[in-house]
Fold these 2 entries.
Entry 1:
Amino acid sequence: MSLRGALLTQDLGCGELVANAEPILRDTVVDAEPILRDTVDNAEPILRDTVDNAEPILRDTVDNAEPILRDTVVDAEPILQGTVVIAEPILRGTVDNAEPILRDTVANAEPILRDTVANAEPILRSTFLHTQGSLAVREHKSYIAGLVAATAVVMEALKPVGTRGAP
């Protein structure tokens, strides 16, 4: 019975099925090897010819594209310079207008953030101290350490510009 027939009728055990499949697979590989070898042998000169034919086409494409790209750059340069000249005062005005708004925002946020930190610290300490078990302690320690680090960053950011970095 063929391998296909055995699979379809399922009348062979697994061991017998493997034993029957092995010679069929060997024969398939033996039969396929010369076909694959011929395919590679036949494809090689075709691929070489393709590369040989494509090389001058690609070279001409690059040669033809180079002056077009140069002209594009030459044409685009004054347009880009004009854009920068027009955009610069607009961007300066935006920064000049935004600076006092940002300063006010920081000034308004500072007391709120300070109060939040002051209110949160005892709650977080209490939570940490009441935690039981080494795993829970370890998890809350890293959580508290993260909050302490974040608080330090916020506090540093809230310092007046000349005093940042000072204890």
Note: Residues 3-130 form one domain.
Entry 2:
Amino acid sequence: MKPVLFLIFLITATTTITVAQTRTRDVLFPHFAEDKAKLEAKEKKGDNTPPRQQGRSSKESIFTSYNPQSAGPKARPLGAQARKQSKATPSDLSGQAALEQQQANKATSSPQPLTLPTQGEEPKADLKTTKGQLKKH
């Protein structure tokens, strides 16, 4: 019995709240129904033209020195054409040729001996104490 009464109470409360909200809307916005009907008629009519752009784009408004990219996809070579124009990659060389090139690079470049930078050392203080400086308790 209690669940049935609770369910009836919930249904009554929700309908009361809905009616109260509608009345408040009609008081605050007296032409709400007319405006809604106009909008629905406009949607049914099919007059959904996008709004015109007002002057500058948002990127131009935000960034003062904005210049859109002018070069298209033809500006950079793609695929095999790019590989033909570029230098040979290490994987294109044979094992023997790569070994020879590596040995030639080692022979021509003699690296300087590497010295690690130091942050300096703390100067060692002369800690000579005499009997007169020590306190005995």
Note: The mean pLDDT is 77.
